[in-house]
Design a protein that fits this description.
CATH topology: Glutaredoxin
Distance between the termini: 70 Å
Largest sheet: 5 strands, mixed
Shape: elongated
Number of domains: 1
Number of strands: 5
CATH architecture: 3-Layer(aba) Sandwich
Helix content: 40-55%
Number of helices: 4
């Protein structure tokens, strides 16, 4: 094989790999559509209750490298907002919960309203600004009801 052709093939493969990685990274951490009727029962995840206005439900595993950072972010948001609670469910030994909530990656974060209805779902690391926006949206809808 000619050296020029081999280099061209390598460059094309490298560009395709970088492009695929960029698209995958971009699709993670984005807000996902949810089933409007999905309601989380706190007992089913081992919690004693939900937040008075909203709950940030994080699914993680022991080997997840990004989960501790998400945990800190969600805990800080919950501490700053009265009525918002952060719950963390470790799925390492609970594949039943992973299956129930269709968790295919960790971290996965669900934003729940006060009734436990899933309002937003994030796969990967959600940005603090979009989480704040979602919580503000839930609070605004509660005031209009």
């Amino acid at each position: 094989m000619d050296l020029g052709i081999a280099l061209l093939v390598i460059v094309v493969l490298l560009a395709a790999t970088i492009g695929a990685g960029y698209l995958l990274r971009r699709s993670q951490s984005r807000r996902r559509s949810v089933d409007a009727g999905e309601i989380v029962d706190p007992v089913s995840i081992g919690a004693d209750g939900l937040g008075k206005s909203a709950t940030l439900l994080q699914f993680s595993t022991e080997l997840c490298s990004r989960c501790p950072g998400v945990h800190r972010t969600l805990s800080a948001i919950a501490a700053d907002r009265p009525g918002v609670r952060h719950l963390n469910v470790d799925l390492t030994y609970r594949p039943d919960i992973a299956k129930q909530f269709h968790v295919l990656q960790t971290p996965t974060t669900l934003v729940l309203d006060r009734d436990g209805r899933v309002r937003t779902r994030f796969g990967g690391v959600p940005g603090r600004d979009i989480l704040e926006f979602e919580l503000a949206r839930i609070a605004e809808e509660e005031t209009h009801v």
